[in-house]
Amino acid sequence: MAADPPRGVVPSAAAGGQRLAQVPRGVQCFFGDEARRRRALESQVVSVFEGWDYEEIIPPLYDYAEVFSDPDLQPRTLSFMGRDGGVLALRSDFTSLLAKIAAGRLSDRPAPIRLYYSGEVLRDEPLRTGTQSELYQMGLEHLGGDPRAADAEVVAVAAECLERLGVEGWVVAVGHVGVLGGLAAEAGLAQGALEPLRERVDAKDAAGVRALAEQAGASPECVAALGALIEQTGPPGVLPRLAAALAFCGPARDALAELTGLVSSLVEAGLGDRVVIDLAEVRGFGYYTGVVLRAYAPGAGADVGRGGRYDSLLSRFGRPMPAVGFMFGLDRLAALLDGRRPAASGAPPEAEVVTAAALPDALREARARRARGARVRLEVPEP
Known about the structure:
Strand content: 15-25%
Structural class: alpha+beta
Number of domains: 3
Oligomer: single chain
Order of helices and strands: EEHEEEEHEEHEHHHHHHEEEEHEHE
Distance between the termini: 35 Å
CATH topology of the largest domain: BirA Bifunctional Protein, domain 2
CATH class of the largest domain: Alpha Beta
Strand order of the largest sheet: 3-7-8-13-12-11-9-10
Mean pLDDT: 86
CATH architecture of the largest domain: 2-Layer Sandwich
CATH superfamily of the largest domain: Bira Bifunctional Protein, Domain 2
């Protein structure tokens, strides 16, 4: 008796089952109810995007590798040689690709430009639990216009998406990369010490951050301020304490003032109880220049959405323009909402069986029922 194939391995039909083809790591496949549930989640999110006057864009699946040259992104980008001799890469990030399109194909469109997308990115991710290389994202980009209004709008859109999906207990953590950048410069950290500092801030290691700053000869108030980024995290009420801690450092103080303006607008708009201040949020791509955002919900285990301001990115493609974006991970939303079907995603109606002795008669009847909107399944006896 032949042994069953190992889990994740299927017989190769091309070789009559004699050879085995292993399922590639990181790929995904969905069928039936799960596929419908994911489509329903996607439909509800993009309907909110369209309700805020964002237009859909379907960008190419691959482009020149230079498009995805961000230091945090490039090592995870899957590249290959094109026929023209250039190095091409599979789409590993929507934001960089849309920035190129806005500067090129959409160069004659006046700002602000509001775009949304829904599709997959492919990355060479480390092999660890819960990480795929094939990731489905739904996001938006607000290019140009008043940065203050754009930041607030993006948070409002993200909030409505979470409300529409029925996500419970969600919050949006807001920070600003200029705060840590200003303090790092004030501390006199050498270029090689910036990444260790970011890693310790990301790990919420206040003692380690202080030790690193002290080793660099930072002033006591700078050391205390770096620790405050980690320890003063919470509702908008922490902002005055952070302002006091950062008062000595002009760049960090200015960045916090910009963030405070955004938070004030969100509070006045009724979102204050959904906002968390987190200046230790420093993960993500290196192109962020201002406000950074992450959406969290109980039970998710990680953020379900993220974004931020990237005012320098479009200048790489010849069209300097302020910009901000946000995206949701469909995979994480689907896992979070597992067992809770969105209102728009009921099971399809039962199919009406259409059968006849002759195939033309069955086709004619099936077409007639489809014209009336019925779901049909064609069954014709084999000759």
